[in-house]
Amino acid sequence: MAFNTSKDGTRIYYNDWGPKDAQPIFFHHGWPLSADDWDNQMMFFLDKGYRVIASDRRGHGRSDQTDGGNDMDTYASDVNDIVEALDLKDAIHVGHSTGGGEVAHYVAQYGTGNGRVARAVLLDAVPPVMVKKDSNPGGTPIEVFDGFRAALAANRAQFYLDIPTGPFYGFNRPGAQVSEGLIRNWWRQGMMGSVKAGYECIKAFSETDFTEDLKKIDVPVLVIHSEDDQIVPYADSGPLTAKLLRNGTLKTYKNLPHGCHATHPDLINADLLAFFKGEDPGADREAVPFRSAEPVTAE
What we know:
Helix content is 39%, strand content 18%. The protein contains ten helices and nine strands. A nine-stranded mixed β-sheet has the order 1-2-4-3-5-6-7-8-9, sandwiched between helices. Helix 2 crosses helix 3 (98-110), helix 4 (142-165) crosses helix 5 (180-192) and helix 4 crosses helix 6 (195-207).
């Protein structure tokens, strides 16, 4: 097992597979999961000849369960410590959900103008900001996140079962093909982490405003989001994020779930591979139920 020690002494677990001279892909997981959430993508892109890396965020998975540091500034710093320790250059950073916020903050703070980052992907990600406020009137009311915290503190085991059984993978939709394995694996990953880290991360993913981060990013970014995302609402995330980026492409799916990289890996992997190669992520897949894939001009 590989660990990197962050500046404050926290040990961060990570996987690092493949040729060390190949282009690296760094995968960033969502709340409250771990590097294992990227199993399919890690194996797929390893087979394509890439170097694949995924870490467990502090307080999650196999990383140390710290008392503090459960915020985006520290998450991004932890990522940068790994990047510097491994001396990654020309890397592609892929983030899902909370991990998308981590990618945006890391790239903006540590990955511009130094050759560290080549591209980035934000998949059903939380930016620009989730919570409803005066500057984000279409956001999710704070009471929703208060409910998350209350449910987690009262009975984390049940809460972490309800989420994957229902909205996360869209298994609450009529006709959904339910995967018991995905549900159990989600629960397993969540329960590996710290209840305190899971609790405090809710504030990090819901209240952090990534607007200025998105404006700073100067590398190509693919934004993938589904209109049927029941965790991070589409209208307040994907399209707004793409407009804030200097070089963003938005790919909109119609009816994929929030955890689409696990339920539909063939679709998402194909999108990622095309983007990594500099190709159109929507080309030659006309039968796939997506709305559009087009560059978006920053406002």
